[in-house]
UniProtKB/TrEMBL annotation:
Location of this chain's protein in the cell: Cell outer membrane
Domain (TonB-dependent receptor plug) ranges: 88-190
InterPro entries, per the entry: Beta-barrel_TonB, Beta-barrel_TonB_sf, Plug_dom, Plug_dom_sf, TonB-dep_rcpt-like, TonB_sidphr_rcpt
Membrane topology classification: Multi-pass membrane protein
This protein's name: Iron complex outermembrane receptor protein
Keyword tags: Cell outer membrane, Ion transport, Iron, Iron transport, Membrane, Receptor, Signal, TonB box, Transmembrane, Transmembrane beta strand, Transport
Main location: membrane
Superkingdom: Bacteria
Signal peptide bounds: 1-32
Originating organism: Phyllobacterium ifriqiyense
Length: 715
């Protein structure tokens, strides 16, 4: 259906999408709410709560609770519960890449942005440029785990939306099952990327970049009010790039434009329209020629690129348009409604060891979500009740052809489509979640039911499947007055597996849904009188019917397996008044195959290291002769792992350590005429640590040293 690297790299899966177009109202009498106080806050005489001032770093963070942070430290957001819950009190594992982190680290893709997030495993396929492939807690989230502004990004087997980090405000990783409020999603969690939004403060920014592999990029970001009373705001963000990958045959070209408008005629109404168009080209073939032993088993990668620069473009056009509405229906009831339509078209040329192929894929989809947030009291209990319904629709078509007889001497491929497939999938879910506060106790309980129907036509055959599943989450936390919050939680997950055919006995059918459940015990500590947040969590995940390619027999066979993932994570984030900020993380993860094939059961899942750790430290000089200078340095450790599921010794992945660095200078500190001019240089893998990395029995190499210089001017 596609080249070997597509199969061993990202698998042949498509994601489902959930959203809503209807409104599910909560019943009962609604009363005025007394807001839950964060530790150290005091109620005013009228019963309201006065919160400490939150310093917002980044032009749009903090708008209506979408995301709030102080430097590297996330303060509150809606990803965990769809309410404005303080991060230090949320009874789940959350990690946020704030706007300050994005500016300091300058990631070039989603995986780089998550490099310092505990529990996230990137780099499974080296410098893979086509897809953002990663795991969380041992579970692959490439297709089922990426959400944008709280709605799933619609994806198909070879049509995944590409992400432009310059267009993001923040990235929040919610670890563990989140199906009770988001529906179909991985038991490992979700990654919710937050788009840049219009601001009430005027913003004018232009930036140019030059870096490794001939990277040349220009970008701009404009935002502010349209009228004098700030009822209409706008934002316009754009990127143009011409670049290559460390493999010269692989492009990294991009045109990106993202307009946004916010209309807020009164305090109770806010409508934000978010759009995007991107035209990008990268390499259609990724990977190196592997050496093979008996039975066709890979024994390692060679330095020889497997593709051909003369036939290698993977071009993709994508666009999306959507809106978010917040409408206060009373002092204690607010309607939230989101809708997004997306469309993607791709054309992929590929060659692997002189065997060419050509593929086309188009997908489109609608994702919507509507819910009521109702605040009320029942005696001594304070409630934040969320009741909602969401709906989604996804359709994709794919056409492919391959064969050496159609590859001419001048490396022109004569298209001959030999395979076509199509799929439609519809999903609807209803859910309810109640956050109950009693004194220092916080109870969160949610339940959801999903219905998913699918029609799949691969190569002329037709299959249909209907699935229905109930998921839930319950968590209990205790918020102490000195900032310590221990919690315990239990959650389940559900995700359908479209585009995957299994043979059960002698009957071919679509694969069964993937189910999961997790128990987690954790503690969070917001250190008093500082801007430091410490978190720790221990978890156990059982996942059934995950869909993977198994290569232990020497061929790519699509199978369903069961996994058990156990481990713990530690994280510390801080931004001090003296200019020092840091992110420190460690995770231990044991991912065991409990059902697949007789020779793999009981073994550790491939490319799943037991130990990962990272530390990023940044310092902005505050005064003296170095005022205006900022420096940052990071180290990332990835422990050893197995290269396939039968633990072939020659494929073992050795442990490795990567060093990153950043330096920047604000020239306004040197000369007032250069105010708001900043030069920045970022390096990833500064020491050029490059080793073989094997995943699912196929081997690649780590991405080498990469340096990017940028000049930014704000006016």
């Amino acid at each position: 259906m596609t080249d070997m690297n597509d199969k061993t790299g990202c698998g042949w899966l498509a994601s489902t999408a959930l959203g809503s177009v209807l409104l599910l109202a909560s019943g009962g009498m609604v009363q005025a709410q007394t807001t839950n106080a964060a530790p150290g806050t005091q109620p005013a005489a009228n019963g309201s709560i006065t919160l400490d001032t939150i310093v917002i770093d980044g032009s749009a963070e903090g708008v209506n609770g979408i995301i709030e942070s102080d430097g590297y430290v996330a303060k509150s957001g809606r990803t965990a519960t769809k309410t404005d819950t303080p991060v230090a009190q949320a009874p789940v594992s959350l990690s946020t890449v704030t706007q300050k982190q994005l500016q300091d680290i300058k990631p070039q893709n989603l995986v780089e942005a998550l490099n310092y997030t505990p529990g996230v495993r990137g780099g499974l396929f080296g410098a893979e440029p086509r897809f953002d492939a990663f795991k969380i807690r041992g579970m692959d989230l490439t297709y089922t785990g990426v959400f944008r502004d709280g709605l799933r990004q619609i994806s198909s087997p070879n049509g995944l939306f590409r992400l432009e980090p310059y267009g993001l405000e923040a990235i929040t990783t919610l670890k563990g099952p989140a199906a009770s409020i988001y529906g179909a999603s991985s038991s490992g969690g979700i990654v919710d990327v937050v788009s840049k939004r219009p601001t009430e403060e005027r913003l004018r920014e232009v930036e140019i970049q030059y870096g490794s592999y001939g990277r040349v990029q220009g970008a701009f970001d404009f935002s502010g009010p349209v009228n004098a009373d700030n009822t209409l705001l706008y934002r316009l963000t754009g990127v143009a790039r011409d670049a290559r990958n460390e493999i010269d045959a692989v492009k990294d070209d991009r045109l990106f434009i993202a307009p946004a408008l916010t209309w807020q005629p009164d305090d109770g109404t806010k409508l934000t329209v978010l759009g995007e168009y991107m035209d990008s080209t990268t390499g259609g073939t990724w990977g190196y020629i592997n050496k093979y032993g008996p039975g066709g088993t890979s024994i390692g990668a060679t330095p020889e690129y497997g593709g051909d620069a003369r036939f290698n473009d993977f071009s993709q056009k994508q666009w999306r348009i959507g809106y978010e509405l917040e409408q206060a229906l009373s002092d204690s009831v607010t309607l939230h409604h989101k809708l997004r339509y997306s469309d993607l078209s791709m054309r992929q040329e590929w060659v692997f060891e002189n065997f060419p192929g050509l593929g086309y894929e188009d997908n489109s989809g609608l994702a919507t979500d509507t819910y009521l947030k109702s605040d009320f009291d029942t005696g001594a209990l304070e409630h934040q009740l969320v009741t909602g319904i969401d709906y989604s629709y996804m359709k994709y078509t794919a056409r492919q052809g391959s064969g050496p007889d159609n590859f001419t001497d001048d490396h022109t491929y004569v298209p001959e489509i030999t395979y076509e497939e199509m799929q439609r999938q519809r999903s609807v879910g209803i859910y309810a979640q109640d956050q109950i506060a009693y004194d220092a106790w916080r109870l969160t309980a949610g339940v959801r039911h999903d219905w998913v129907d699918s029609e799949y036509t691969p190569g002329g055959d037709s299959y249909a499947r209907d699935d229905s599943e109930t998921t839930a989450r319950i968590a209990l936390a205790y918020v102490t007055p000195f900032g310590l919050t221990p919690y315990v939680s239990y959650g389940t997950s559900f995700v359908a597996n479209p585009g995957v055919i299994q043979t059960v006995g002698s009957v071919a059918q679509q694969a069964r849904p993937t189910l999961g459940e997790q128990v987690e015990v954790g503690v969070k500590y917001a250190v008093p009188d500082t801007n430091i947040l410490l978190t720790a969590a221990v978890f156990n995940i059982d996942q059934k019917n995950a869909t993977v390619y198994e290569t232990s027999s020497g061929t790519n066979l699509l199978r369903q397996l069961d996994l058990k993932s156990r481990g713990f994570e530690l994280e510390a984030t801080a931004s001090m008044d003296n200019g020092l900020s840091f992110i420190a993380a460690y995770s231990y993860n044991d991912v065991e195959i409990t059902r697949l094939t007789p020779e793999t059961e009981g073994k550790t899942l491939n490319s799943s290291p037991y130990h990962t750790a990272s530390l990023w430290v940044n310092y902005d000089f505050q005064d003296g002769p170095l005022d205006g200078l900022g420096v940052g340095a990071g180290v990332r450790y990835v422990g050893s792992s197995f290269g396939d599921n039968v633990h072939t010794p020659v494929l073992d992945n050795k442990d490795r350590t990567f060093v990153d660095a950043s330096i920047r200078y604000d020239f306004g500190k040197l000369d007032s005429a250069l105010e708001n001019v900043r030069l920045q240089v970022n390096a990833t893998n500064l020491l050029n640590e490059v080793k073989q990395i094997c995943t699912t029995g196929f081997c690649y190499f780590d991405e080498g040293r990469k340096v990017v210089a940028s000049m930014r001017y704000r006016f």
